[in-house]
């Protein structure tokens, strides 16, 4: 029986993507070859890469001043590449410390220059998004995390600043309408909302590059990847293909605005139950709640055994919270059907 998969990542993808990807492993586009055994320089794969790159821009409503790359190394390598490409020697960057992934990005940023943490909710266990800060023109860039996968918080607004905004959107990419043209760099590991692990989406505004005077190693240089149409070396062929299938699924189901409406309905269903059921409580403050990762806990630990048995019996998988926070985390990414959220809510009601 197919489980209701609430895993935080790698995570659920549309069933249609699993089916089409399986078929392509056996015979890709009637070539008599598997997607796993064709050259990345074949015209068939170049078409996949080009369609994926174009579809990202189309869904995000971005123009030719942006380039789309599919790289390897995960979001974690972007913690390194972004400052390497944007921070001048002796330069300064502003970072928002809204969670563990933000803190991991800060750690890498410090290896390239001065990092000013302009806001942090660390002392309050990252239960909210820091606000009331400004980002002045003295910085080379501002870095933030749009959705905090572990704590279940999400930035609803982004600061107005003249410096490039670098945003880690790993866990809420394509989940809601945002003015994507306010960002200098958007990056996301594929494995939360887009595809299998192995590919990392990077969207770059071209005119922010080439200003640091640094000698950047080839693989870490965005400009080089752009000049090679995201084919500098062997790309993660299968992960890019699965990402394309997900992008097509988003487009065929009404684009980002329709995905947002579905996500809001799922999140409301689950948060309404948490708010009305005295046995459950959220880790995060109401105004910053994420529509992707719902982190919550039992108010009565004596119910733990019964709750765990009940959700497992209902065919639910991946509900345990992150090891650093405990409790539970329901990841309700784009591909999660509302019916699966209803199954969880029914279990919560039954307790
Ligand atoms: C999962 C996650 C990461 C880490 O991604 P990797 O691809 O494993 O490096 C970084 N940031 C956020 C917001 C995440 O959810």
From TrEMBL:
Q: Where in the cell is it found?
A: Cytoplasm
Q: Which residues bind pyridoxal 5'-phosphate?
A: 75-76, 101, 149, 168, 191, 233-234
Question: Under which main EC class is this enzyme filed?
Answer: transferase
According to the entry, every stretch annotated as the Aminotransferase class V domain falls at 5-344
At which positions is L-glutamate bound? 41
Q: Which reaction does it catalyse?
A: O-phospho-L-serine + 2-oxoglutarate = 3-phosphooxypyruvate + L-glutamate; 4-(phosphooxy)-L-threonine + 2-oxoglutarate = (R)-3-hydroxy-2-oxo-4-phosphooxybutanoate + L-glutamate
Q: What is its main location?
A: cytoplasm
Sites of the modification N6-(pyridoxal phosphate)lysine?
192
Recorded hits in InterPro entries, A to Z, give: Aminotrans_V_dom, Aminotrans_V_PyrdxlP_BS, Pser_aminoTfrase, PyrdxlP-dep_Trfase, PyrdxlP-dep_Trfase_major, PyrdxlP-dep_Trfase_small
Key words of the record:
Amino-acid biosynthesis, Aminotransferase, Cytoplasm, Pyridoxal phosphate, Pyridoxine biosynthesis, Serine biosynthesis, Transferase
Which pathway does this chain act in? Cofactor biosynthesis; pyridoxine 5'-phosphate biosynthesis; pyridoxine 5'-phosphate from D-erythrose 4-phosphate: step 3/5; Amino-acid biosynthesis; L-serine biosynthesis; L-serine from 3-phospho-D-glycerate: step 2/3
Q: How is the cofactor bound?
A: Binds 1 pyridoxal phosphate per subunit.
- Tell me yes or no: is DNA-binding among this UniProt entry's keywords: no
Indicate yes or no for the key word DNA repair: no
What cofactor is this protein dependent on?
A: pyridoxal 5'-phosphate
Instruction: Give the EC number.
Output: 2.6.1.52
| GO MF term list | transaminase activity
Tell me the subunit arrangement: Homodimer.
Family to which the UniProt record says this protein belongs: Belongs to the class-V pyridoxal-phosphate-dependent aminotransferase family. SerC subfamily.
* Function recorded in the entry: Catalyzes the reversible conversion of 3-phosphohydroxypyruvate to phosphoserine and of 3-hydroxy-2-oxo-4-phosphonooxybutanoate to phosphohydroxythreonine.
Q: What is this protein called?
A: Phosphoserine aminotransferase
